[in-house]
Amino acid sequence: MEYKLAPSILAADFMRLGEQIDAIAKAGAQYVHYDVMDGIYVPSISFGLPVLKSVRKGTDLFLDCHLMIMDPDRYIDEFADCGADSVTVHVEACHDVGVAETLQHIKRRGLKCGLTLNPRTPIGALAPYLGMVDMVLVMSVEPGFGGQKLLESTYEKLAELKALKERGGYDFDIEVDGGVTKDNLASLIRAGVNVIVSGSSIFKGDIDANVKDFFAIIAENA
Length: 222
Ligand code: DX5
Ligand code: ZN
Fold this sequence. Notes:
Blueprint lengths: L3 E4 L9 H11 L3 E7 L11 H10 L3 E7 L7 H6 L4 E5 L8 H10 L3 E6 L17 E5 L14 H15 L4 E5 L7 H6 L4 E4 L1 H4 L3 H15 L1
Helix pairs in contact: 1-8
């Protein structure tokens, strides 16, 4: 299993964004987790396409775009044009053209496609699409804000997802997002997660030391 660390730049210092992305890359992180919020699907507004374009110019890291936006199909071409490597959409948010069509659109543009769900959405909601996705993102907090505590119900969700993955013989990545810390990382890895998003626990304090600590825990529990 390949493990990827995806620091969420929602927790970065935006005055020093380039410097901080260089720091996570130098310490070994492979992905940048890029949280897009529209103020409708979630209460907050974060950042969007122009910032993505600048980040793309400044880094070779894999840009893992998590769209917390309503009807995400409307924006897939623009995310592709601005340099996204993967686009993950919410199963609850695809009303205009439907989930399968949205995922196909992402693939047509040559991007990796991900599907995610809110903590209150049952894992069964993803079942019809599991054969199409490169990654399933299990939200471990209510989407919309960084710095929340990981919900304990996440572990049951991960177990259900792992069972569906094995039963179907799928090989998608399993990503977790929200409240991931050095204290719960080992349990999450043992629960089957291989793409790890973390905002506050990477960007608060010493970025280099935090990334290295995360990788040491990954190595011990992989
Ligand atoms: C929440 C976002 C997360 C968030 C994670 O809606 O999707 O990616 O930035 O931040 P932490 O790790 O601080 O919970
Ligand atoms: Zn996210």
